[in-house]
Amino acid sequence: MTQPTEPIEFAVAADEITERFPAGSTLSPAVRDALEKICPTSIENQSLAEHGRDWWPLAMHWALQGKTPRKPGAVCTPNTTEQIAALVAVCNTHDLPLTVAGGRSGVCGSAVPLYGGVVLDVTAMQGIVSVDQVSGIVEVLPGTFGPDFENELQSKYALTVGHFPQSFDISTVGGWVACRGAGQYSTRYGKIEDMVVGLEVVLANGEVVRTGGAPASAIGPDLTSLFIGSEGTLGVITKVWLRAHPVAQFQARASYIFPSFVDGVNACRDSVRNGATPAVLRLYDEIESKRSHGLDGTQCTLLVLDEGDERLVKATLDIVRESAIGNRGKVGDIELVEKWLHHRNDTSGLQALTRKGYIVDTMEVSAPWSKLESIFNGVRTAFMTAPGARSASCHLSHSYLDGACLYFTFAGDKTETVEEHYIAMWNAGQREAIKLGASVSHHHGIGINRARFMQESLGSAMQLLQGLKNTLDPKDLLNPGKIGLTSQRNNSKPVWP
Ligand SMILES: Cc1cc2nc3c(=O)[nH]c(=O)nc-3n(C[C@H](O)[C@H](O)[C@H](O)COP(=O)(O)OP(=O)(O)OC[C@H]3O[C@@H](n4cnc5c(N)ncnc54)[C@H](O)[C@@H]3O)c2cc1C
């Protein structure tokens, strides 16, 4: 069975790992006994420390100081929906927080058990349950990792869901849904919310509900979407039904060079508005184009890849070409696409720089086309105003009819005060993005790190979200203290920052 991948090593042995957030009490023997009766339950030091963190880059610095964000009291590994409902019942009885963990590849601390309690690790629930080949619908368990899922789907059924996030190898289907993720081929296949047909969810009161099931229903508000992006705060996703496409038989690639990022943005916009939605349409600013594609530091690269029916793919690539040339683009080296395909999921640079003490992180936002230029310029500048800032760059990674995702990468100098500089860089970049009209996140989600921006981003709609939480989870059991929701567990005050 595939297991989660550790983000970085701890600097100390398992029994010496301490906690960054206030340490909690251990579970009583009676509670442990109740949990153990339901499913395998661990209180082993290494397991508690690993389940106390995810791939949040700041937590990597803490690991190198011998700290995990917050250890749970126990890690439970159920393998049925019934066991999950029983675990939720125990948490209800003993007022214990319950945080779901999948691959723990989240980058905002969303799987961190901020107030201790139980971590419910769904990675024992793996595999495809059934496939409706006529409709192209696949039923899959939430702890299934990307490669296991797509390998089985493609080899046995000649189908693909088309969701390939950069974290494909280290993340699970349940995590994709819970974080409202986006794959690198999303301009063709859509974001995860476009792929979900329905869900099975265990609610905080232990009830099991099934949502969705048919395309484009008009049976009241879409209840499936309540749980997509809820980051484990509204329910535990125990089964997912996803739309699948026939595996593509034809693929084509192209690349273009632009004298400015804005020209490239206009080319992407024109392509999509003219009906071309190639799987990959990635535009890199002059900094990233120099770093990754060997350009001279003044030009920008657009990488294009599409797959599917040959006639459609060729027409799509034609429209992109016309849009690129019409916006001062020149044909670039097609080998750049091949190079990107080979290196696109490599994260070794992040760990290497973190071990040297540098701050490195990414911030992805989405916005309408009309605001992208000011966000591109404003956010890159804002990052560089923060103390210790070293670099800030950007690429456009996912395009829509009305706008796109801008993905910023920023780095800070080595410093004794990593946390302070890290917070300052995030405040500078994220606040500028919100001010200029961007959403807080396009696909990484909110977790702990971005919780402080939710109120200013959602405004009065934040009350609606809080109301939903209060109704569905009145005791605040499920992943408390996340996505900007208040938690009575800390007198409604945020724990961080
Ligand atoms: C190097 C790197 C690259 C990345 N690239 C991308 C990318 O291209 N696109 C993208 O979308 N994301 C990306 N991410 C972010 C992350 O991988 C995604 O958010 C992913 O979907 C998380 O899945 P997971 O299984 O690891 O979930 P976890 O990290 O374990 O959990 C994330 C959140 O979902 C909740 N959750 C998990 N499973 C369930 C469940 N069954 N029921 C209810 N709640 C649940 C958890 O409680 C937590 O709040 C990247 C991360 C890294 C480290």
Sheet with the most strands, sense and barrel status: 7 strands, antiparallel
Beta-strand residue fraction:
15-25%
The level 1 CATH classification of the largest domain is: Alpha Beta
Which structural class best describes the helix and strand composition? alpha+beta
- From the alpha-carbon coordinates, what is the Rg to the nearest angstrom? 22 Å
* CATH fold description of the largest domain: Uridine Diphospho-n-acetylenolpyruvylglucosamine Reductase, domain 3
**CATH-level-2 architecture of the largest domain:** 2-Layer Sandwich
Count the E strands: 20
Bound molecules: flavin-adenine dinucleotide
| Secondary structure: helix percent | 25-40%
Report how far the terminal alpha carbons are from each other: 36 Å
Strand order of the largest sheet: 17-14-16-15-19-20-18
- Please report the number of helical segments: 18
* Nearest-integer average pLDDT: 97
**Low-confidence segments:** none
- Gross morphology is globular
Task: Describe the model.
This protein is of the alpha+beta class and 497 residues long. The protein has five domains: 14-123, Uridine Diphospho-n-acetylenolpyruvylglucosamine Reductase, domain 2 (2-Layer Sandwich), CATH 3.30.43.10; 128-246, Uridine Diphospho-n-acetylenolpyruvylglucosamine Reductase, domain 3; 250-343, Alpha-Beta Plaits (2-Layer Sandwich), CATH 3.30.70; 348-449, 2-Layer Sandwich (GMP Synthetase, Chain A, domain 3), CATH 3.30.300.330; 459-490, no CATH class. Helix content is 35%, strand content 21%. It has 18 helices and 20 strands. The strands form five sheets. A seven-stranded antiparallel sheet has the order 17-14-16-15-19-20-18, with helices on both faces. It has a five-stranded antiparallel sheet with strand order 7-8-12-10-11. The longest helix has 18 residues, at 418-435. The radius of gyration is 22 Å and the shape is globular. The chain starts with 17 loop residues before the first strand and ends in a 25-residue tail after the last helix. Flavin-adenine dinucleotide (FAD) binds at residues 54-55, 99-107, 110-111, 122, 142, 165-167, 171-172, 174-176, 178-179, 181-182, 231-232, 236-237, 347, 443-445, 479.
